[in-house]
């Protein structure tokens, strides 16, 4: 896992810990397998760091990367997606020079999945019962966003000849999301496409 000191990542979040906007950013960081310094702040008492990092809106969360502040949760998620590769260790597995280096990359990737599983467990609590998905008991947009990556990770594991990254014992929730998304996938050719595959949509 990429360390907080190595990346210079700090996350300013409301001290209450129940902000959906902060959770959104924490989920993205977990999916990236990135460690960060967690800095809870009191929204009612603007700290100097918050005022310096977000002088216009003075709102949380704020991600600080190498001294550079990024504000607004959706912008932060987009920044993470564009600037920091998802699960960087998993790609590195295919480019390792020896068995020890490959084993290290596998361990880093498994640690990243551990963070993802923890974030999913925290966000899947719906009402009194805890469900298997991000929103609790029903499949949602975030589950689909995660689930589409599962076959990719499985393919990397097979190409590298390493054990599966997801299994029922270590990552039950992430595995459940991936399985549910794959079972519900239905890619149909539109009637007017003449039998040709349609374009890729994002």
TrEMBL record:
It comes from the Eukaryota. Is involved in the conjugation of reduced glutathione to a wide number of exogenous and endogenous hydrophobic electrophiles. It is an enzyme of class 2 (transferase). Belongs to the GST superfamily. GO terms for biological process: glutathione metabolic process. Its main location: cytoplasm. PANTHER family: GLUTATHIONE S-TRANSFERASE, GLUTATHIONE S-TRANSFERASE, GST, SUPERFAMILY, GST DOMAIN CONTAINING. This is Glutathione S-transferase.
